[in-house]
Design goal:
Elements (H helix, E strand, L loop, with lengths): L8 H29 L10 E6 L5 H10 L6 H11 L7 E6 L4 H10 L8 E4 L6 H12 L3 H9 L1 H10 L24 E4 L6 H16 L3 H8 L3 H14 L6 H13 L7 H7 L36 H8 L8 E4 L5 E4 L2 H11 L3
Length: 357
Amino acid sequence: MKRAYKDTRGKSGIKLVIILAVIVLVLAGGLFFYVHGISATDPGNKDKVSITIEPGTGTLQILNQLDEAGLVQNKLCGKIYVKLSSPDSIQANTYVLSKDMTLTEIFSAMNSGDPAYTSQSKFTIIEGATIPQAAEAISKESGLAEKDILDKWSDKTYLKALIKKYWFLADDILNKDLKYPLEGYLYPETYFLSEKDPDIEKITETMLNKMGKELTPIKEDIKSKLNMSVHQFLSFASVVERESLFEADRPKIAGVFKNRLDKNMALQSDITVLYALDRTGVKVSIKETQVDSKYNTYKNKGLPVGPICAVPRSTMDDCLNYEPSDYLFFFATKDGKVLYSKTYAEHQKIVKENKWY
């Protein structure tokens, strides 16, 4: 009697095909994951991101810097890329990159020291800086004339174009009583110039883009917490910025000014008078408090007609989270200590006992 043998060759072939198919799918999936992981984090976003690579910095440290700056899609894939590509000749420099660059493009630029991506120079807009100070800082590094910068920032046609482009700019900046239309809107920060012959329009947009990134997350809070427009808010915050020597005092000083606004009292801020007079310092005479200017918060109730300086996000947050109190007055002593009072009589006594100028 013949034995019946089962032909398993067909089934074995099918199993092999399935296994191979699974392997191919896994490899394809892994490749897709890897390629996506080293792709650009935000295609189309050409906003400048500066990264400073110090001498002797390792590739994994550089990867961490890129990740913190939002330039790495997937850190695991980044580590794999660094391991496979072994970029070992990265040159120490400040690189001006963007989120529309892939990890391959970024490391290629740093590995070659490509001058197209290295900073030619930088300028800093300090916290509390005014428009003339900003123009001076830019002029020194860019070669652009201060007058040309200020003229561009006062050009009505240019300003109207900016209003259309940026949600936080409104017709408030076209007010004829403003000394500088963009005062308070150019975010205080260190900016890097990647071009040998930069133009003021690109520089201005870089600063406004930064301001937009800082204002967008607090857009609703400005309305709900303070019931102010952006222009009013920056005007308010700029006064707090210039009146506060120490960060710890800002929430309380903001609270004092908020109380005065709520009671329809004049802010009576000396620094608004000094701004109107194009002066620095602390001493303001009684005669000077009568200067005819919409910035003068002695002569005019409410906020000044516009911001008086550049305001950092930390001050904005302190204004939004001002410290509630019954205080209506404050006075800073020579060492910067701020003394608060609830009545004018108390305030006068404090001033008499502590006046130093």
